[in-house]
Design a protein that fits this description.
CATH superfamily of the largest domain: P-loop containing nucleotide triphosphate hydrolases
Number of helices: 25
CATH topology of the largest domain: Rossmann fold
Distance between the termini: 27 Å
Strand content: 15-25%
Helix content: 40-55%
Shape: globular
CATH architecture of the largest domain: 3-Layer(aba) Sandwich
Structural class: alpha/beta
CATH class of the largest domain: Alpha Beta
Number of strands: 17
Strand order of the largest sheet: 9-8-10-7-11-6-12-13-14
């Protein structure tokens, strides 16, 4: 048995591995560098087997509980492949401990000797890092129960819920633990058009029906989390089959893309799978889940809603979940996290039954019936089917045991209805990914400010303690000041920026996006029947239109990401080079990056008149519709020579029937779309050129700002070098300040240790 020790720090993304006490070789595939555990944990058994040539291991894991639970899941899967892994856990400091330590360090910094560490920009950076929003995007096709599920999470009716598709706006609900909900309402241009201090269901209905409303920003209490941890934001997005704003569809695809990491609740109707609107979205989800390992799968929670509509003895919950799993697999999604639920039952328990006990009320009577159904029928205990981690399952089971002990039938049914496990899964994701990232951001904010302050303080100390070299120091300062005045360094780097040209690279990548889209169109073409009735042709044009809308949004987002990731990144790299040159004196300069406004590439009504297109392509052909018996009237008894003739024959009947050539229709339909795709790849390149020019202009300003900061620092050093009267006092002061900085830095660095 091989002894494996793994220490994993989720805050610093550092993994240390030894085998039988020996460090790994440099070329070992087990050197995971700065990759998150969830990106490599599933491949660990195979890599260990390849490295050690054995299938028997004891792994001692030093890390957090959520990460250890992923190790447990890995070991269980490895056992099925014949690789035995014995696990032992050395617990690490958990997130709660670190959040306390962070606040203590911040308070100490604010009471410390450095005025520059108490500046508004420092406090703002800390507050921003501390209160970072974490989005949970809720996506669904029509009639899946998306709004009802959101309401069940909010524990009140706020979002309009109807049988027809009703979400026509993007609504963001941010948790702030307030007693009531308030809202700001924006139009398509981002202009604030309404405010509501006490938001109601009726108001939300009106806003959703208002064509002027594009986005609603809501704040209030999301009960299953606290805003002290992470500011959770529930995002209700228009489905693929309903959006009056083309940008909304792009926003949905943008959220699903592999470059984005929000949690996604994908709501599915258990009674209505395989709707056409699912296809594009699910294929996009599949692409995202293949990038980033386990985290990419963890961030997609597939909620199978309305499972309580099945009748006992006629349908099986387990069979329904298997059907969903197979359906998702057919769409390229492997090992999905499927959570069965009845959102309406959960909502009714949390609203109707929480506020009334009147059995004469029809709604109350119906809700109580659902409570009895869930509590009496063990198959309806949805929490059993949820893919909960051990700690999550323990949390849910404790809640259930308490409800049973207290005789709380409503709470028991609520847990069985599947919403409570979904809430637990959201909290776990936040803890595992969002909180660790937040802690790292806060600590990084501290470290950058402290290092820059320390660097400058050391420089002042060196100047004070080296009075014999006063002339040389002043000469060096003078040289730097003159270089700055001449602008030589700035000019050099500005020239480099002007030479940025990523046209060829962007063109190549844009082409690859278009080729991928072209393949999807080809697939649609190949699946279209050759001959269609006019009615079928009209129906398939509707399918084509939804497909085209999804494709246009997908391509738009991919081209946006292309520009953002390549133009902006490279420009920022140049800025970093410049910052490094003056790092010792001006590290505390915070240079923000240019925000690229999303561009709208692929909007517009591509197919304006499908009926006209169909009419133009309607053809006619003679089609055999039946047969008619024709008697041989020449055959008579009195005509012996006719006795051996046929009694008659069948005459084929033909009619002229109209049909539409399906292949030709598909080709004509997609021809302008294909042309538009290529046009927009060119537009993306042109847009990139314009953005590059704006970035160059903005960064040139930043260089000037950096030069100004450096000039200020040099002036302060010059004063320090010329101050001969207070040398001893200055040396003492700088040493005390450096000692304080070192103490604080040790505390800050310790926060990220496990």
């Amino acid at each position: 048995m091989k002894e494996i020790f793994i220490k994993y720090n989720p805050y610093q993304l550092v993994t240390e591995i030894t085998i039988d006490g020996q460090k790994l070789k440099k070329n070992s595939k087990l050197n995971f560098e700065d990759r998150r555990l969830q990106e490599w944990v599933e491949s660990l058994p195979d890599l260990l087997f390849e490295e050690c040539n054995t299938k028997d291991f004891k792994i001692t894991f030093h890390g957090t509980t959520p990460d250890y639970e992923d190790m447990e899941a890995m070991a269980k899967e490895a056992e099925a492949k014949g690789i035995h892994i014995e696990l032992e856990h050395i617990p690490a400091k958990e997130i709660g401990d670190k959040e306390v330590a962070i606040q203590e360090v911040f308070d100490e910094i604010q009471n410390g000797p450095f005025e520059e560490l108490r500046q508004p920009d420092v406090i703002k950076a800390f507050d921003l890092a501390k209160s970072k929003d974490f989005e949970v995007n809720v996506v669904a096709t029509m009639s899946a129960g998306k709004s009802t599920l959101i309401n069940s999470l909010l524990r009140q009716k706020l979002m309009p819920a109807k049988q027809e598709a009703c979400t026509a706006t993007i609504t963001k609900i941010k948790d702030n633990d307030a007693d009531c909900f308030m809202a700001k309402v924006y139009d398509k241009d981002g202009t604030l058009i309404q405010t509501h201090t006490e938001l109601t269901y009726e108001t939300m209905e009106q806003l959703n029906a208002n064509p002027s409303v594009s986005r609603i920003q809501v704040e209030g209490n999301i009960p299953f989390v606290t805003s002290d941890d992470v500011s959770l934001v529930l995002v209700d997005t228009p489905g693929p089959n309903n959006s009056r704003d083309p940008e909304h569809k792009a926003a949905t695809y943008r959220m699903l893309s592999e470059s984005s990491k929000p949690l996604v609740l994908y709501i599915m109707n258990a009674t209505q799978l395989a709707v056409n609107d699912d296809y594009n979205l699910l294929s996009h989800v599949a692409e995202s889940m293949k990038v980033g390992g386990k985290q990419s799968r963890d961030r997609f929670i597939f909620v199978v809603n309305k499972l309580d509509d099945f009748k006992k003895g006629e349908d099986s919950v387990e069979a329904a979940i298997t059907k969903v799993r197979d359906y998702l697999k057919d769409n390229g999604i492997e090992n999905p996290n499927i959570y069965p639920a009845s959102a309406l039952t959960a909502l009714n328990i949390r609203t109707i039954l929480a506020n009334s006990d009147d059995d004469n009320d029809d709604d109350v009577y119906e809700a109580k019936g659902k409570v009895r159904k869930f509590n009496r029928n063990e198959e309806m205990h949805f929490e059993k089917y949820a893919p909960l981690t051990p700690s999550m399952r323990g949390e849910v089971e404790d809640m259930l045991a308490k409800a049973v002990a207290e005789g709380d039938d409503n709470q028991q049914a609520l847990i069985h209805a599947g919403i409570v496990p979904i809430e637990a899964a959201i909290r776990m994701y936040v803890q595992k990914y969002a909180k660790t990232a937040k802690i790292k951001n806060i600590v990084d904010t501290f470290i950058k400010k402290l290092e820059s302050t320390q660097s400058f303080e050391k420089t002042k100390q060196e100047i004070a303690t080296n009075r014999d070299e006063q002339k040389e120091i002043l000469a060096q300062i003078d040289v730097i000041k003159k270089k700055l005045a001449s602008g030589e360094d700035a000019k050099k780097f500005k020239t480099q920026i002007e030479q940025i040209n990523y046209d060829k690279e962007i063109s190549k990548l844009a082409q690859s996006v278009i080729v991928a889209a072209q393949k999807k169109i080809t697939k649609q073409l190949s699946s279209t029947d050759a001959k269609l009735s006019k009615r079928d042709a009209e129906s398939i044009c509707q399918v084509f239109a939804k497909f085209a809308e999804g494709l246009q949004a997908e391509v738009q987002v991919k081209l946006e990401n292309l520009i953002s990731n390549h133009v902006k990144k490279n420009a920022e790299d140049l800025l970093e080079q410049y910052k490094k040159k003056i790092a010792e004196l001006a590290q505390d300069v915070k240079v923000g990056s240019v925000e690229l406004n999303p561009f709208e590439l692929m909007q517009g009504d591509i197919i304006s008149d499908t009926s006209a297109l169909i009419s133009k392509m309607t053809k006619s052909e003679r089609v055999k519709v039946g047969e008619e018996w024709i008697e041989n009237e020449d055959r008579k008894w009195y005509k012996p020579w006719t006795w051996f003739q046929e009694k008659g024959h069948y005459k084929e009947i033909y009619e002229d029937k109209e049909y539409v050539d399906g292949t030709e229709l598909a080709q004509k339909f997609f021809a302008p779309i294909q042309e538009l795709l290529y046009e927009n790849s060119e537009s993306a390149v042109e847009y990139a050129k314009k953005q590059t020019a704006l970035i160059k202009k903005e960064f040139a300003k930043k260089f000037d700002e950096l030069d100004a900061v450096l000039q200020s620092k040099l002036k302060e050093l010059e004063v320090c070098a010329k101050d001969n009267e207070n040398i001893e006092a200055r040396i003492k002061e700088t040493q005390e300040r450096l000692d304080w900085l070192e103490k604080i830095q040790n505390k800050v660095n310790g926060i990220l240790e496990i």
